[in-house]
Amino acid sequence: MELWKGRFQKALDPKTNDFNSSISVDSRMYKEDIEGSIAHATMLGEAGIIEKSESEKICAGLKEIAADIESGALLIDPNAEDIHTFVEGELTARIGDAGKRLHTARSRNDQVALDVRLVLKKECASLIEQIRELLFVLCDQAEEYADTVMPGYTHLQRAQPITFGHHLMAYAEMFLRDIGRLEDAVKRMDVCPLGSGALAGTTYPLDRELSAKLLGFSAVSRNSLDGVADRDFCAEIASAISLAMVHLSRFSEEIILWCSWEFKFIELDDAFSTGSSIMPQKKNPVITELIRGKSGRVFGDLMTLLTMMKGLPLAYNKDMQEDKEAVFDAVDTLRLCLTPFIPMLKTMRVLKENMRNAAARGFINATDCADYLVAAKGLPFRDAYKITGQLVALCIDRGLTLETLPLDEYKKVCDAFDEGVYTAINLEKCVNDRKVKGGPAPENVRAAVKEIRALLG
Ligand code: ARG
Q1: Quick check: helix, strand or coil at residue 164?
Q2: Closest by Cα among 48, 172, 37 to 118
Q3: Residue 194's Cα: distance from chain center in Å?
Q4: What pLDDT is stored for residue 251 in this prediction?
Q5: Ligand 1 center to residue 51 CA distance, Å?
Q6: Helix, strand and coil in the chain, % to nearest 5
Q7: SS3 assignment, position 22
Q8: What domains are there in the chain, each with its CATH number?
Q9: What stretches in the chain show pLDDT beneath 70?
Q10: Atom of ligand 1 nearest to the CA of 21
């Protein structure tokens, strides 16, 4: 259907039509487009703007179209300008004149602003559900490895002892915030733009509250220009998803490191790894590499949206048609990444021995040795720090660890040392004693798991 037939003598040049059309992207909104049209038509009938009988005819026709697209009986025309045009054209072809009344007091500008919101509301709910699933897996794994000692790192240098459960729960915090950000974005976009018209509202006596209510919105948009020109919600969602991708990507990077022979802290299940076409020994953590790579395209989506919007005068501009490809890609990519990541995490084998062995090397109990001199022997921390530094240098020189350095060597550096130092630097004790709120001690990990499970409900 050519919407603007009255003013134009010719159809759009076919290649230009391809360029102009958004159907390849927005056909995924057909259900929401029809849902929006049913609400609009119902409201038009209720408000007496069109006949009730026409409104009913329109709604019945729209329902049939939805069912036919769903069943495959009706194919969406790839040459249509967009989904709005296609549905309206199909409706008029099916029910005749009543179909021509559907677009009374509506523009594709408020229509598309509505459709994208409806789609994104659903998509966000399903992403939140997926992230919740990830959180439950993280909690289970953290509980299982609540007392598995591993080295914690700063600068990728072994730093202080932590537990694997604590490390996993750090990611739980990040993903919990991701859920919060998505929920926030949904709250702000929970306004119905129908009634904004093309830009200047309408002279028809619309019942905007009714349309909003029928579509499950909690409010109507306050300003008709903003109603059609706002795409903040797309950028907010892409931004929330970008941060979720940052978290997935950092986690992936660590998994890649942990799978290497250099670390060998975990082994992924065969079902979530691939081999090499030439090197028979290889087992590659490709899922995590792909996730790390795909984070880039999601940041690109966010940049697309911000850049697309930044110079646009009010209200609608065709540039905004680019919104859907970007925001849907961000949604789809996060979903795609979470899908294998969750079972991969669930089935990974944790090599506790290797973590424990790594923890035994690298002097990660040096701070605890200094703390012992402070707590048991009353030294000022700065002096204790210096003495421990000298002991570490001595150990490196002799090829020893703080655990294997004989007491007389300790005493040569500082005669305050006694046998008690060996208890103080025992790694399990070092971890168990780090029970300050938020710390890595097993009891803290179990408490954190409990708290997060409770938050998830
Ligand atoms: N396909 C368009 C989009 O995605 C729908 C709105 C078109 N409005 C217009 N005035 N051309 O943004």
Answers
A1: helix
A2: 37
A3: 29
A4: 98
A5: 28
A6: 65, 5, 30
A7: coil
A8: 5-104 (1.10.275.10), 109-357 (1.20.200.10), 362-456 (1.10.40.30)
A9: 1-2
A10: 1
CA atoms of 140 and 197, how far apart (whole Å): 50
Which atom of ligand 1 lies nearest, measured to the CA of 198? 10
Query: What per-residue confidence (pLDDT) applies to 443?
Result: 98
Instruction: Give the pLDDT confidence score for residue 2 in this predicted structure.
Output: 64
- Tell me if 368 sits within 8 A of 424, measured CB to CB: yes
Tell me how far apart the alpha carbons of residues 199 and 229 are, in angstroms, rounded to a whole number: 8
What pLDDT does residue 20 have? 95
For the CA of 82, the closest atom of ligand 1 is: 1
CA distance 245 to 251: 10
Residue 5: predicted pLDDT: 75
Residue 454, judged by CB atoms within 10 A of its CB (0-12, 13-18, 19+), counts as: exposed
- Distance between Cα 299 and ligand 1 center (Å): 25
pTM over 0.85: yes
Report CA(374)–ligand 1 centroid distance (Å).
70
Cα 438 to middle of ligand 1, angstroms: 50
Supply the residues annotated as catalytic. Answer: 155, 276
Query: Residues near ligand 1 with C-beta < 6 Å?
Result: 22, 26, 82, 108-109, 112, 316, 318, 320-321
User: What span, in angstroms and rounded, lies between the C-alpha atoms of 201 and 109?
Assistant: 11
